[in-house]
Amino acid sequence: MFSEKVVNNLSKSSWIRAMFEEGAKLAQKYGAENVYDFSLGNPYAEPPEEVIESLKKHVLSDEKGLHRYMNNAGYQEVRERIAKSLQNESGIELSAANIVMTVGAAGGLNVTLKALLNPEDEVIVFAPYFVEYNFYADNHGGKTVVLPPDTSTFEPDLSALEERITKKTKVLIINTPNNPTGVIYTEKTLKEIAKIIERKEKEYDTTIFVISDQPYSEIRYDEVKLPSILSIFNNAIVVNSFSKSLGLAGERIGYIAASSRIKNIDVLMNALSFCNRTLGFVNAPGLFQKVVGDALTAKVDVEAYKKRRDFLYENLTRIGFECVKPQGAFYLFPKALIDDDVEFVKRAMKYNLLLVPGSGFGCPGYFRISYCVKFDRIKNSIPAFEKLAKEFK
Amino acid sequence: MFSEKVVNNLSKSSWIRAMFEEGAKLAQKYGAENVYDFSLGNPYAEPPEEVIESLKKHVLSDEKGLHRYMNNAGYQEVRERIAKSLQNESGIELSAANIVMTVGAAGGLNVTLKALLNPEDEVIVFAPYFVEYNFYADNHGGKTVVLPPDTSTFEPDLSALEERITKKTKVLIINTPNNPTGVIYTEKTLKEIAKIIERKEKEYDTTIFVISDQPYSEIRYDEVKLPSILSIFNNAIVVNSFSKSLGLAGERIGYIAASSRIKNIDVLMNALSFCNRTLGFVNAPGLFQKVVGDALTAKVDVEAYKKRRDFLYENLTRIGFECVKPQGAFYLFPKALIDDDVEFVKRAMKYNLLLVPGSGFGCPGYFRISYCVKFDRIKNSIPAFEKLAKEFK
């Protein structure tokens, strides 16, 4: 009766959302304060003052036409500000013409893949990765090729990349700071990737686009810098969102920035606007375009996230968990205490701990903790982690 | 390099948007007040007071978590209010579980088609129609079947419908009040359609869904009622938006309401939520969900639109244009003064009149006037229409 593919996918659907819903049930049963829900990347943090002030300014003004359609790509002045900021960061010349405002990064990724993919084109991702990429690629006729994780560092496996690029490879998606590991890929690694891609583009006479999905770009610790994707890759497309950096996840606001170094960039920008329109986004929400334009240099309290990372990392390693120390995002990705991560996560639920199995990120044997929650939840969860660890000793 | 299909579609792309952009150029050249841009359905009207008050209330409150993710289907309390209102209107029992909040009607249509269509499934539409439906169906593997217009009344052609339903027909899209004609399909016509569909469902042992795309449902004149789609059709799915009724086109807020009479409705609702998420919408913009929930009974000043309709209709018929008098929406769809509507629209541009050819709606020989503009523009345009008509006498 309905789409068979969609109905089949319902059962394979998001672990993260499944845990989120399980959490709601447990919270009802035991009280929210007794459930340690670490399942969803739904920041507890309120938007920074600049966002709130901008919102008030626009809503209280008698600005006419604030809620009308604008160009499908978004407000010119907001796109100009974003272009200027990316240009300063990357040294690559960019203007408003290189930017399309989008319904978050998820919207931006769908629009970009639709504009790029021909049937059976391959989209390479490094595990562990955000598995929704599979659906996004499939929506537009693409096939996801998942490269196995290097669990020693969670950096991309370069030899795997070199081996798996084919004539059909159209896109490489990178996600740094990474969800679920919190790892920031080094400049050296990214430059190696660029070399491999350039070599393969020559070998096959193809163009391979690097899509950088970087909603966590502003959530970095220990003064680690984010290497500039736009300067490292020739065919770079940055997809970003203000969900995490400005605490606006529910408002669905982000952008696509495509490098001026891409050949026929005008055609690509038209294609992106067209896809933004015809996939049904039409344009990114208008009021919040203006707000992020005003608050472009603001960000949520990263120190507060760092405090959470440090506390959790110290306690979990003390308890005996193995874990790469994250440099960004708000996730920890420790090794499960048994091989079967799904079973491990189920056993954790006994202690009201809601975790997401690594299998949900193409990386079995690990689990994700999303620590964008109130500090008390983290502090109070430590005895539960201790009991859980004891069970496997 | 890019998606071939998308690049090919760029050239066939929206007439409406093309005219909109042409209008911007002419406005720069001659001054906005001297260009009679009737191309886009971008309401001039500011949202009603209830919307502005609700926006202020939420933005000035210290409501925590206002901008966070919520359930992919949207806020429970907003969905409940919409369900209750539709239940009152239709007599069909509905709850929050029947509603998914969406990124406008364009988003809602893409989500619905994705959830329903299997490869090569057919989507029937009555010309004249909003040609973006072609892209929406194609996005999800469907094929649009366009039934020719009955230009005497612009009501659906029932015998054409009866003939063209096949085993592959999955969806009929109806759009009433209609864009571009402003016609409201009568209850009698809709009930005839329902009979034909039920007969064909039995004949082929299939299920055919009626999607009612009804963003103009609240813009009606002369006390004409809108027949209730949910009560007339068994497999009814209403897709609506607040773009026109609350003047919120740029904010991208609407909903899907699927009838509780649909078999396996639970599976369908899960599929709709899943598609909302994986197509990259994730959820409808959060703040505006709350706002439309608060302002559900409000609407823009319909009398102001009626004044425009009456003035334009009277003047154009006086000048000699043939036109069905619209009962809703904010469009007129007169007959062009030559067969070639594209040529006619080009000639109109000489008088700074921006119109959209009927070919852009699958109905050559006609043209669309979008009168959701300031009254002065309409008033001042009449001499231009007179000169244009003179040219063809």
From TrEMBL, chains A, B:
**CDD domains membership:** AAT_like (cd00609)
Q: Would the keyword Transferase turn up in this protein's UniProt record?
A: yes
EC code(s) of this entry: 2.6.1.-
Which cofactors is this protein said to need? pyridoxal 5'-phosphate
Q: What class of enzyme is it?
A: transferase
User: For this protein, what is any one GO molecular function term?
Assistant: transaminase activity
SUPFAM superfamilies attached to this UniProt entry: PLP-dependent transferases
Q: Which keywords does this chain's UniProt record carry? A: Aminotransferase, Transferase
What highest taxon heads this organism's lineage?
Answer: Bacteria
Keyword Transcription regulation tagged: no
Xref: InterPro entries? Aminotransferase_I/II_large, NHTrfase_class1_PyrdxlP-BS, PyrdxlP-dep_Trfase, PyrdxlP-dep_Trfase_major, PyrdxlP-dep_Trfase_small
Q: Which Pfam families match?
A: Aminotran_1_2
All copies of domain Aminotransferase class I/classII large, residue ranges: 34-373
Q: Which NCBIfam families match?
A: PRK06836.1
Task: Write down what this protein is called.
Answer: Aminotransferase
Q: Which organism is the protein's source? A: Crassaminicella thermophila
